[in-house]
Structure prediction request, 286 residues.
Amino acid sequence: MNAASPSPASAAFLSSAPAGSALQAQGLRFGYGSDQPAIFSEVSLQVRPREIVALLGGSGCGKSTLLRVLAGLEHAPAGEVRFLGEPLRSPHPRAALVFQQASLLPWLDVRGNVRFGLDFAHQPKADRKALDARVAQAIEAVGLAGREHTFPSQLSGGMAQRVALARALAREPALLFADEPFSALDAITRAEMQTVLVELVHRWHAATLLVTHDIDEAVLVADRILLMGRDAHDQPAGIVREWTVDIPRPRDAHPAATTALRLEILAALRALRSAPDAAAQPAGTS
Ligand SMILES: Nc1ncnc2c1ncn2[C@@H]1O[C@H](COP(=O)(O)OP(=O)(O)OP(=O)(O)O)[C@@H](O)[C@H]1O
Ligand SMILES: [Mg+2]
Prediction:
C-alpha cells in the first residue's frame, strides 16, 4: 500500500485543482507590518470539498498566521485567497473557526452558545425555526443532546470543545478552520475528539484545515498533510512538503503504516531545521 505519496508543494498542482475547491491560495506573502520581515512567502495551497488538510510545522513557523490570512482575518499584501471560487477579502459566513480555547460565553448555556450570532446581519438569512433546528442538530452531532441547558462552568474541557465544534457546525460551514483545537485537552479526550472531528467532517461535508504541531494528530486525522517551516537561518520557508495519506480509517488499526508516515514526517521536520534544502525534495524521490 502506498500510504503516503509525497509531492512538491508548489503552485503547479493548483492548475489541476477541481473547479469546486473549497479554498485556494496562491503566492501568499505576509508580515506583521510593512517594515517587518515576512512570516511566510510564496505559499500556495488548496483544500478540496470534504477534505481534511493538516497544516503541520514547528512552533512559531507561521501556521496560525497563515490560517488567519486564509480565513480573511488578516490581509496578505501579495497573493490571492479564493473561497468557494470567489476572491476572499474578509471572513466568509460559510467558513467557521475553532481555536485551542473554546471561548464560550459564560452567561449563556450550551444551546445559547451554539445559537449565538447565527442571526447576525452578516449571516445568511434563515427563519427562526430553521435556525433552532440547525442548533439542535449540531448539538446532537457532537454528542451533547440533553446538555442544552448546561452552563460553561459546568463543562469539562472536552465538552467545551464539543460546544465550540457545534457552534461552528451550526453555521453549516463549507470550510472549518481549526487552530490546534485539541491541544489543551488530555491525551484520552484529545484522541476521542480527533475521532469526533473526522466523523463530523464526513457527516457534515465540511472541508477542514487543521493547524497542528502534533504529527500523530495529523497522521490520524488528515487526508493530506502540508509541512510548513522556517529554515535554519530562521527565514520563512513556506510549505515545503505535502503527503497524501491513504491509510484506511480508523488509522490506529494500521500501526505499521501510521508509524512509517510519522517517522517520515519527523525526518522531514528535522531536515528542515538543520538544512532547509534537504527537506524540500522533488516528487517521487522519497
Ligand atoms: N500579532 C502579531 N504581531 C507581530 N508578530 C506576530 C503576531 N502574531 C504572531 N507573530 C509572530 O509571527 C510568527 C509566527 O507566529 P504564529 O503564531 O503564526 O506561529 P505558529 O506556527 O502558529 O506557532 P505555534 O505552533 O506556537 O502556535 C512568530 O514569530 C510570532 O512571534
Ligand atoms: Mg499557532
About this structure: The chain has eight helices and eleven strands. Residues 110 and 147 are 7 Å apart (CA to CA). Residues 32, 39, 57, 59-65, 213 surround adenosine-5'-triphosphate (ligand 1) (CB under 6 Å).
